[in-house]
Amino acid sequence: MTLLLASFAPPYWLSTLIKVLVISAVVPTTALILGMVFLFKIMSWMQSRLGPQEAGPRGTLQLLADGVKFLQKEDIAPDGADLWVFKVAPLVVLMSTLVLYVALPASMHLVVADLDVGVFFVLAVASLSVIGVLMAGWSSASKYSLMGALRAAGQLIAYELPMVLAVIGVVIQAGTMSLNGIVLAQNNGSIFGWSGIGFPYILTQFLGFFIFIAAVQAELTQPPFDMPVAESEIVSGYQVEYTGFRFLIFFLAEFATAFVFAGIAAVLFLGGWAVPWLPTASDWYYVLGPIVLFAKVMIVSFIIFWVRFTYPRFREDQLQSLAWKVLIPLALVNIVVTAVLKVVL
Amino acid sequence: MLALLVAQNIAFYIIAALMVVGALRVVTCKNLMHAALWLVLVLAGAAAQYILLASEFVAITQVLVYLGAIIVLFLFGIMLTRAKTGTDDDLDNKNSAKFIGGGIAVLLLGLMGYSLIDGFKDTEFGNLMVQRTAQVSDSIFSTYLLPFEVLSILLLAALIGAIVLARRD
Hints:
The structure holds two protein chains of two kinds. Chain A contains 13 helices and no strands. By secondary structure, chain A is mostly helical.
């Protein structure tokens, strides 16, 4: 089975077609898994409620039912909305999510494009979703939407910087920007000669991991960083005028982005698709790689959603001063210390 | 190799046509927000052309800096100052200004076209090498170290200047 997969070398058009199909199937599936497991089940357990019970065994199909419900709804645009921009905006956000999946490696060869500068690419395209958010907020012709979009833009600009700076520590330590290269560097590394667990960078880059997760949380506009969609003040911000499948696209994009960012964090800090006990060159990773990555993604997602369900919302000034006065200086210190240690050790 | 070149050329012309349409719409659009969004298309097209020219670092930097930061600041600024939907009739220039602008555009087209043709007329497009990011960074931090540092200080000075200008106290 594994050898069969290893020797599969389709022509360019076929491999492109397969990649497109796989990504378009993976993105909604991951969004459904995260929404189901964390938003419905874990959240209700944390808050001592039952959560959805009716659709499917123990309510596991609730999100599917919700999705079908969204698809049946009428496609409404507000009077006075800029129709063209209004309709394209969710697609821009979704496109940014889809492009993020391009660089995420699920094993050595199980990756859409194994880019030399994978990390850099991820950080660059992650910033594209802001354009969609601003388009949505402006074109809705609504005060709440506009306020939400402005808050979102201010927040996303502020937290993009700590995210980029947090990753640099890992890049310095691994000596490469390729995501596969970072996985290999961690799993073939050793801690002072002991290679029992490889060398996951969370041990040395714990600060970077913390800053990265905080920045991811802010990029996803999840609590405690949910000023842009604060439902008690601006009733969901830029999404407020969206109904039916356009709202569904925003929802899918948010959770799929959460999944892919958790994946990037797993690759950067937890060793990605490999386990230290099996050599990274093994053919087993064709099957095992995605499973290992998925397990690590679920661990990181759990942290992200745990924080989401636990902490109350930041005020706008707290949010900005956390980014500019705490996270960015910490990230800069982290870079300096990592660079010095890299040269000294 | 030949098939790749043909595909590259076809992609170049499609993207270039989109960029030209986008650029024309940027200046003729009566809606400021739409003009900024057409500019997104032009800048994304430029990034795509860089990828066709096998320089991944410049392409990704183009996306990160222009699309991710500058365009977002444009949109942010427009939404803070004049966020109305619909068209603005006062966005147009006087006829004399239009002619001067058109003249400058034609002049620039001639100048840049001439310098491009003059500079690259003997270059074969086929033996294009992929420019690795590691090579780019190696040359920045060895051969071009001094200009790079000077540029950094210039940007820092601009940054401080902007803060001084923006703060009234």
